[in-house]
Amino acid sequence: MPKVPVEVSATGPRMIAEAAIHADGVxxxxxxxxxxxxxxxxxxxxxxxxxxxxxxxxxxxxxxxxVAHPDVEIARQLASGWTSVFARFAVMHGKPTGPQTNDSIKxxxxxxxxxxxxxxxxxxxxxxxxxxxxFIDNYAIVGTADTCVARLRQISELGISKVIAVGFAETASxxxxxxxxxxxxxxxxxxxxx
Length: 194
Known about the structure:
By secondary structure, the chain is an alpha/beta fold. Helix content is 51%, strand content 13%. It has one domain (7-192): Luciferase-like domain (TIM Barrel), CATH 3.20.20. The termini are far apart.
């Protein structure tokens, strides 16, 4: 029987490096910030080169929070729940991993100190409400459909071959949720097929 390919999702440097050597694919879970994605890609490639493997011989993908809405405040609010869940992994052991700004360090420290596991992905939790707007704008992709498409294209240009887009945890039946879902399906997805 053929080998079942193993793809590893990784956030921190040790897991990214292990995945680079032992997995058949690496899915970075480091947010949508281009500097953080470059850091993860570089770590995969340098680790493979040091191990005597083809640095470009493994596909690299990314988990990214994406919420489109013409009102960026609504997009941020919808994205904040899942963004807090994914971002928490960047500070899981108390120290932020990868490149960070002072603003992102403050938001990550908040996630480390105030994360409530009982209602993780809701936008009304303390962890979601405590992230700065700038942090959400950088760690996730929020805004108009055109803004989202442009950022996803930038990610693709880095060498990311696959993106798993994570939306929001609020009910999709709300007007804002329905609009965000329809925008993703009807405007963002078709724009990226080319």
